[in-house]
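Re: the multi-chain job from yesterday

Posting the exact lines I submitted so nobody has to dig through the queue logs.
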Amino acid sequence: MTDNTGWWRSAAIYQIYIRSFADGNGDGVGDLAGVRARLDHLADLGIDAIWFTPWYPSPMDDGGYDVADFRDIEPLFGTLAEAEQLIAEAHARDIRVIIDIVPNHASDEHRWFQAALAAGPGSPERQRFWFRPGRGPDGSEPPNNWKSRFGGSAWTRVPDGEWYLHLYSSRQPDFNWDNPEIRTEFEDVLRFWFDRGVDGFRIDVADGLVKDPALPDVADGDETPFSDQEGLHEIYRTWRKIVDSYPGERVLVGEMWLADMSRAARYLRRDELHSAFNFDFLVCPWDAARFRDVIDRTLRAHDEVGAPAAWVLSNHDVTRHVTRYGREGDTGFSFANRLHELPVDRALGTRRARAAALLTLALPGGLYVYQGEELGLWEVLDIADELRQDPVWARTGGKDPGRDGCRVPIPWSGDEPPFGFGSGGAWLPQPEEWKAYTAAAEAADPDSMLSLYRAGLRLRRDLPAGSLEWLSLGEGVLAFRIGTEFTFALNFSASPVPLPAGEVLLASGPVGTELPTDTAVWLKS
Ligand code: NOJ
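And the result, structure tokens for all chains:
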């Protein structure tokens, strides 16, 4: 495989949520065999790397982010030998492989948590997690007021009376990173997978590993004692040394939802992580000035540390962007408020999603494509309550519908569910309308979302590198040049505007002498 310096600086990385990508053995759940059979779809799409969400043995309380063993493959997905084969097959197609690492917490079925439960209060086994006595005369109150990000308290009590911390579900106990054993363990896990050929890691909850050991109460919304603690940088410097000790260019990508972009950029200094998802871009409402602002802030913060930006529109945690953009008004995405009750104009959302794809593909840096976004899939909003699996649904008492709607299995071909996903149905029901959105149907249609992504991914390889210079083409029009020959324009305003001069390389919708509303264009000029 080629070893071009800095591949990750401009890479298009495709996110595979394995359970929902393709099912090779007919049990209704996606697996590694399914991915192997579909690698050509990814090669044809033109991506540079795959990021796999966790593939480790897991009781699947949180879709695999509850890891029971960091050195094996979930049996529902396949075997370790198969994972190694898959890595080799991807490499043979010049596709790199990034896997998820989940260092903030384990599954309650992890052997260390089971040992901690068995060993009892005060034991070294309990020091690997955050066990504490409760408050109140009989210890029946949690040790502090921290909330789980999935709803409810962040503490659960065990039969001997102690409580353990979990920032996510009660089946995801948080590791204690003050314990050197945890550090050594994860350094070894990194090596285990690098030795098997992976090209990098996406670090789950990268901002959360280190906690203020005083475990102080917090005011509502304050995450200071468990997010962005200074001690994290030392951990990532150690990890970076391991990464750099391997041949080829292997990478670390952080998942961090930090409010302050320049704080986030500190993790991207040259001896720490390579990149981090740009979630400010993801949550930006459909508005030219807001997009310009977030792009400016991103490029500035990243330039300061010499890191590339990584643009992202969707992932397995957020409402799919066809749906988000199909809501009128100032509806940026927020975890606290999924807005599922608002009406969705899907045609509008699709038009905007096409324009957003061209924006994302044109911006300097790298980008992520979440499986199904290249088909223009939308959030499935009408999943029956009894089928919902995301713990967010149960932990909020149904107030938050959770993330199942963006995790519905991918339609590949055919006229009826499961649309070629596998021979044994699909673990979440797919909408009937997806027959027009299968990969096969879209491959045959030059105007489909898939054709747009393919063309965009192919053409972007030849776009000039360089810094972005804003153009003023009127209010509501986001336009910039890169280098001397490339112009991008996206019309967010309510009326058409004159098409900028130049030869149209690609457009997200029909253009003539004018650039219509919610349409983007790439021009050679
Ligand atoms: C972020 C992951 O993307 C999400 O799916 C998961 O639930 C949490 N981290 C906890 O691991």
